[in-house]
Amino acid sequence: MHDPCDLSTTDCHDEPTGGRRAFLRESLMAVAALAAVGVGADRLEAMQRVFLTGERVGDELRFPMPTADGATIDTANRVVIARYQGSVYAFDIECPHRGTDIEWQGENGRFFCPKHKSTFQPEGTLIGGKAERGLDRHPVRRDGDHIVVDTSVTIRSTDPEAWGSAKLAA
């Protein structure tokens, strides 16, 4: 959600952008909006999708370490964080086929490209569709209870050694 008062480092409420209060406020508003259109708690749990903007310092982005399997989508920085079976990954938000933004389908446990119907495992491996490779990853590291993503480096699945090491134990 975009806060019109956002000035990059602080919002109208004098708290850091991406701070705990802002995250909780935005999360509660999203849950209320979904409840208003009839999405129940069982459906919310299956989705496991969060929209969040990472804190940028140069080419690095910081995100809270995910606590459950699913996806965190940062549309502003064009990055997706996924937690799956004890590992955390960072991907480009774009499908490697034609650059369309991928979507997380929590109910199916996969990423999906709506343009040409490519599908990907939660760790980025190509399942099927027109894409010819898995999702592009970024190197990740842990910093306390945060994940740090180096967006200056993009690793393709065609480099299996580098691609396989671009993950972090959750």
Explain the overall architecture:
- Strand 5 (79-84) and strand 6 (87-92) form a beta hairpin.
- The protein is built from three helices and 14 strands.
- The chain is of the alpha+beta class and 170 residues long.
- The model is unreliable at 1-17 and 27-49 (pLDDT under 50).
- The strands form three sheets. Strands 1, 4, 5, 6, 11 and 14 form a six-stranded mixed sheet that branches. Strands 2-3-13-12 form a four-stranded antiparallel sheet, with no helix packed on it.
- The longest helix has 17 residues, at 20-36.
Total beta strands: 14
Backbone CA Rg? 16 Å
Low-confidence regions? 1-17, 27-49
Shape: globular
Provide the fold topology.
Elements: H1 20-36, H2 41-47, E1 49-51, E2 55-57, E3 60-64, E4 70-74, E5 79-84, E6 87-92, E7 103-105, E8 110-112, E9 119-120, E10 126-128, E11 137-138, E12 140-143, E13 146-150, H3 160-165, E14 168-169
Parallel strand pairs: 1-4
Antiparallel strand pairs: 2-3, 3-13, 4-5, 5-6, 6-11, 6-14, 7-8, 8-9, 9-10, 12-13
